[in-house]
């Protein structure tokens, strides 16, 4: 499909705009999208950028998306100890400076990452076979302990006793796995 603005280049950006119930479709090439960015402003931001588009699509909380520079100037800006990147710089660039930035900006990044990954923020990838069984049992025990704490807090002691017994069983299984190498 060709760009509806210039009719010269292939369209790479396709979106619909709904104004007072009237839907208008846009098919733009990269060049026209940059030139006419003011048409596609999102909440008064400075034009169409990948970050703004992503933030709009994900409907990120205003605390993350619409923080003004004045907010950061009033407070001491949060800055990574290793690469000296500030959160404000991250918002402009869209990339973190080093692995330590994840720890430094954890509080600000967690809501965004949760929304981006549908609430799943724990890595659940493949496990090497040689440690797989051992690791899986440990993970199950960890989950059961969290469940046990919740049951005790809710005063569901009968269910908690069942989970406690299951934890003991898994711990025995883990011990035999480690000793026997099964």
Reading the helices and strands in chain order gives EEHHHHHHHHH
SS summary, helix count: 9
Estimate the global geometry from the Cα principal axes.
elongated
Question: What is the radius of gyration computed over CA atoms, rounded to a whole number of angstroms?
Answer: 25 Å
Q: Kindly report how far apart the N and C termini lie.
A: 59 Å
Number of E-type strands: 2
Helix content: 40-55%
Strand order of the biggest β-sheet? 1-2
- State the secondary-structure class: mainly alpha
Estimate the mean pLDDT confidence: 76
Largest sheet: 2 strands, antiparallel
> Runs with pLDDT <50, length 5+?
41-47, 58-66
* Share of residues in strands: 5-15%
What is the number of domains? 3
Would you write up a description of this structure?
- This protein is mainly alpha-helical and 182 residues long.
- It folds into three domains: 1-47, Wheat Germ Agglutinin (Isolectin 2), domain 1 (2-Layer Sandwich); 51-58 and 77-121, no CATH class; 132-180.
- It has nine helices and two strands; from the N terminus they run ββααααααααα.
- It has a two-stranded antiparallel ribbon.
- The radius of gyration is 25 Å and the shape is elongated.
- The model is unreliable at 41-47 and 58-66 (pLDDT under 50).
- GO terms for molecular function: cadmium ion binding; cobalt ion binding; copper ion binding; zinc ion binding.
- It holds the Pfam family UVR.
- Residues 134-161 form a coiled coil.
- Keywords: Coiled coil.
